[in-house]
Amino acid sequence: MPKANPRHPKFPIPGGPELRAKGWRQEALLRLLENVLSVGEDPDNLVVYAALGKAARNWAAHEGIVKALTEMEEDQTLLIQSGKPIGLVRTHAKAPLVIMANCNIVGQWAKAEVFYELQRKGLICWGGLTAGAWQYIGSQGVIQGTYEIFMRIAERRFGGDLRGRFVLTAGLGGMGGAQPLAGRMAGAAILCVDIDPERARKRQQIGYLQEIAPDLDTALEMIGAAVKEKRALSVGLVGNAAEVYPEIARRGIVPDIVTDQTSAHDLVYGYVPKGMNLDQVKGLRDDGQGQLMAASRASIVEHVTAMLEFQKKGSEVFDNGNLIRTQAREGGVANAFDIPIFTEAYLRPLFARAIGPFRWMALSGEESDIARIDDLLLEMFPDNKIITNWIRLAREHVPFEGLPARIAWLGHGERTALARRVNALVADGTLKGPVAFSRDHLDAGAMAHPNIMTERMKDGSDAIADWPLIDAMMLCSSMADLVVVHSGGGGYAGYMTSCGVTVIADGTDNADERLDHALTNDTALGVMRYADAGYEEALDEVAKKDVPYIRLG
Ligand code: NAD
I want to staple 61 with a disulfide (CB 3.0 to 4.6 A). Which of 57, 148, 285, 291 is the partner? Predict the structure, then answer.
């Protein structure tokens, strides 16, 4: 039975033993589509997260997808082009059920303005990373990544945790909403600025944000007291980051860590310029795009200038993957890239071993299935400190949204081993239903994003998009259930290409084979990508785990 969804009553949370499709694989993908809407930011408009990241092109396309998933046989493959179903072809039972290409625009045309025009004509939509691929699991999807960033900084600069430290950030949206909880889990006093009071309330309602301060003075007092008492605390503040950051700097306050996760990548549908309210911005989105882009960029210039000032005074400042430095540089801030990107600064040694944001969703809708897999994880990887620490924390702090799900940064071999054991638990009835395995697109072999994931690669291969394309083709040959190639839309147009994958553990022998091939090959490619770029960690992984990388010379 689907469960009521108090946040979005029209979009119930899927679950239960009854199938509407002709098999569990099809049913699973249907539930994942329902799930991204149930946890999405604006499901009435099919928007899941990141300002414009959509689950389907429009409601007619959505209906067509639901119909196809419900009626299709196991030996068919549904083709989706930018969120619209375009055909159901006969393949074979080991082929993917769904393959998608979302928002891939030819190089010289891949610009925000061209994207907006194609979108206006109804020819394209942006899938974000995980929205269009039905893999989004709410703010939990990035929470471990955000937590691991904070902990890497804590280890390097603050003696191991963030107790007694002030973190300043902005953006409480679909992904940014993970920040207050991740900060609190790391022990920090974290202040999160968002222009939209609704977003702040939503994060508070679902348990990701503790307090909302009525004004900046109160917010700073609350943070100051928590810092003094070394007490973890998350505080939201409704305001524009382009005003609040410079004001904090003007008062001579230097936070220990500063970042930002507003939708700065999109100057029209994401970032809100200072001096404008949300209604004014909405009014300009169709007819005043040029004006809005200029105003957003001017505000981002002030926003990033304040971040640079904090950096100069000793704060640890980083870009959390929203293109804010790129926008600021285009607005004239020549040294915007003095701010490092989180991937290169903190997480690359993990990615070089293909350790990244792996996740799974209990299609039964039962939280007990996730709890059982948590136990299994602890039993299988008792010496993996990242995992044991994370599962302990996640169990205590991370509330479920939508289908119960868990994220855990696992690497080559580990993902496959876990998924196959879970498949066996589905087969013997220990779990109440099948489990879907997936990962973020921001994963070792899966993404080319030269200002985010692949910035300053050791061999200079930052902008080469062959890797996600090889990944996708390989995953189709490796029997994954859903394979997708995404490129950037809105402000990300021309900035990235990525590959996504989902495999369903339905307890069958076929699923065992799919999980084995798809998950093993996916992380093997991740190791190869970094080995090929000359990363020692990857070469070590090749040797230790017998990764079939062809090393020339
Ligand atoms: P979202 O659109 O759901 O939320 C963005 C939030 O920023 C909104 O709540 C909005 O009100 C707020 N905002 C906009 N302008 C503001 C301003 N000037 N001052 C204060 N608040 C403002 O987006 P999201 O899903 O949370 O993603 C945020 C950004 O992070 C995007 O650019 C996204 O692409 C990026 N992202 C990074 C990662 C990563 O791995 N680091 C992962 C996912 C998304």
Answer: 57
236 marked among binding-site residues = no
Q: Please tell me if the CB atom of residue 490 comes closer than 6 angstroms to any atom of ligand 1.
A: no
Give the confidence band of 464 by pLDDT, cuts at 50, 70, 90.
very high
The span from the CA of 273 to the CA of 267, in Å, is 9
Could you tell me if the CB of 192 is within 6 A of ligand 1? no
Banded model confidence at residue 337, pLDDT cuts 50, 70, 90: very high
CA 153, CA 414: separation in Å to the nearest integer? Answer: 26
- Is residue 172 over pLDDT 90? yes
Position 146 scores a pLDDT of 95
Q: Give residue limits of the domains in the chain.
A: 27-120
pTM of the complete model? 0.96
Q: Calculate the alpha carbon distances from 258 to 118, 169, 254, 387 in Å.
A: 36, 6, 9, 26
φ, ψ (nearest 5 deg) of residue 497: -140, 140
Helix axes 24-38, 59-71, angle to 10 degrees: 150
Say yes or no to pLDDT of 140 above 90: no
Instruction: State yes or no: 353 annotated in a binding site.
Output: no
The response to whether residue 240 sits with its C-beta less than 6 Å from ligand 1 reads: yes
pLDDT at 14 over 90: yes
Pairing of the two strands 189-194 and 166-170? parallel
- Report which ligand 1 atom has the smallest distance to the Cα of 240: 19
pLDDT at 286: 87
User: Is 240 annotated as a binding-site member?
Assistant: yes
Type of residue at 408: A
Q: Look at residues 114, 90, 241, 246 and name the one whose alpha carbon lies nearest to residue 169.
A: 241
Residue to probe by mutation, ligand 1, list 36, 52, 143, 261, most atoms within 8 Å of CB = 261
Average pLDDT in the 515-529 region?
Answer: 98
Cβ proximity of 545 and 412 under 8 Å:
yes
